[in-house]
Amino acid sequence: MNSTATAKPGRIAVIDDEPDIRLVITDALTADGHEVLAFGDGESGLAAILETSFDIAFIDINLPGIDGFDVLAKIVEKETDVAVIIITGRATVANAIEATRAGAYEYVTKPFDLDKIRLLARNVMQRRVLQFELDGLRDRERSQHEPGVEIVGQSPPMQEVYKTIGRVADSSAVVLLQGESGTGKERIARAIHAWSNRWLGPFIAVNCSAIPDDLLESEMFGHERGAFTGASGLRRGKFEQARGGTLLLDEIGEMPLALQAKLLRVLQEKEFSRVGGHETIAADCRIVAATNQVLEKAVSQGRFREDLYYRLKVVVIDIPPLRERSEDIPSLVDYFLDNINREHGFAIRGLSPDALSSLLTHDWPGNVRELENVLVRAAAMAPSRLLTTEDLPFSGPREANDYPSMSLEEIVVVKLREYLDRQGDSPPGNLHPRVLELVEKPLIEVVLERVGGNQLHAARMLGINRNTLRKKITDLDIDLRAFGDRG
Fold first, then answer.
1. Those residues with Cβ within 8 angstroms of residue 274's Cβ, 6 or more apart along the chain or in another chain
2. Which of 90, 98, 129, 377 would bridge with 5, disulfide CB 3.0–4.6 Å?
3. Which residues pair with 57 in a beta bridge?
4. What count of Cα atoms within 13 Å lies in the side-chain half-sphere of residue 476?
5. What share of the chain has pLDDT > 90, as a percent?
6. Residue of 135, 157, 133 lying closest to 147 (CA atoms)
7. Which of 103-117, 182-196, 223-237, 308-322 is the most confident on average?
8. C-alpha angle 281-287-292 in degrees, rounded to nearest 5
């Protein structure tokens, strides 16, 4: 927004029963380039304002017929976009209070300085230029979060989500987003922010599962210099970074119990202190929490504080899994393919009918994120500009589909025999590590896809620790960008 916006001439109404007052104001404002229409009574002035477009109205309180306050009330009632400046010869406290409470932009008393009248008109018009620019910025920002753009889908379950966003966006209530991995909880959080009265503030997201427990408190609240080994300077945490905006606490169910107690205090007291600090800092941000867990179950198991759960459960939005809104898949495919073509330089023009049918009947355990990843990889590997079932990972390879009754182990045996057959009479001498690598990389990739790129959840599913998983990802050259890279 440009704070040095140049004021443009406006269309101004002057309503006063004194001819001399009307004349001097009209002459002064006309000299500044404004179009000015003068009226000697409230009825004619109000009729003109309600029938045509005005930017500003200078209105005397004491008028024949309806007085200035009645005119102001009608203007406010009709929600016209007019800045009303009340003029009066009786400078009383009651008049000043009543004028501002009734919706007047400003209140001036007679005798007045014409330069003040001209300055008021200039300020109003400058504000209008700034508001126009602000509205344009708001429209551009919010257009990124309108249903059908960033959040795709018009199915009944998604319509309920949109309705709830509309109801709660401008409130300061804590919102809890519940849904499976990959359902788009962060996009919903961003939409809540974009449609809130904090939309010009920052949107800050912190993934509670991706940060080691011993660093999470500092990440959330910041730290002072010397607070712990390695704290070489002051660092502002996510709560400070989100001042005036929205803070998304993603994967809130993974937050350690000790930090849950500190978060509860922040939600109750609206203040916090940095690690190693004594200064009390106001927590001025809207909280949105997200989880793919059933927090009630976590509470019953002692993994999540009951009091914090009820602090978060103010407004709950349940994000439907993709399998419950399959009618949105064609729109999602169009949206993702458009992004994929633009970002990767592909020229995919669509899907064959059988490929789309395959997408519609898949159960999508990884939800929308899985759909996006499937399309990215299909687009990268497809031999033509039309994606077919052969390009989809769950539609092939065809040989595997030939063994529907076989167990995983039996299919592995068959495929290993085929692999050795292709080696001929001279199989490689490193067969054991080579086969383990061939199996290990797709195993990790399939698990990462299943959990939406969440490395903590992937490590648990694989039965290895997170550091081991990270090393294998590096050693096996696994591209985390295909799975969302959520740490």
1. 221, 222, 223, 224, 227, 234, 235, 236, 237, 281
2. 129
3. 13, 84
4. 22
5. 41
6. 157
7. 308-322
8. 135
Is the confidence at residue 486, as pLDDT, over 60? no
Q: Specify the amino acid at residue 205.
A: A
For residue 316, pLDDT beyond 80:
yes
CA-to-CA dists, residue 55 to 52, 80, 87, 95, 107, angstroms: 10, 9, 17, 23, 16
pLDDT value of position 65: 87
Query: Are the CB atoms for 41 and 86 separated by under 8 Å?
Result: no
Give CA–CA dist 439/469, Å, rounded.
15
Q: What is the DSSP string of 239-250?
A: HHHTTTSEEEEE
CA distances from 70 to 42, 77, 134, 236 (A): 8, 10, 31, 52
Euclidean distance between CA atoms 182 and 301, whole angstroms: 25
Single-letter amino acid, residue 212: P
Domains and CATH numbers, the chain: 11-139 (3.40.50.2300), 156-320 (3.40.50.300), 325-396 (1.10.8.60), 428-487 (1.10.10.60)
Instruction: Give me 107's structure tokens.
Output: 């209140």
Residue 289 has pLDDT above 70, yes or no: yes
pLDDT tens digit sequence for 126-178: 888 877 766 666 666 655 554 434 688 888 899 889 889 888 988 899 999 99
Q: How many CA atoms lie within 13 A of 276 on its CB side?
A: 17
Does position 268 have pLDDT exceeding 80, yes or no?
A: yes
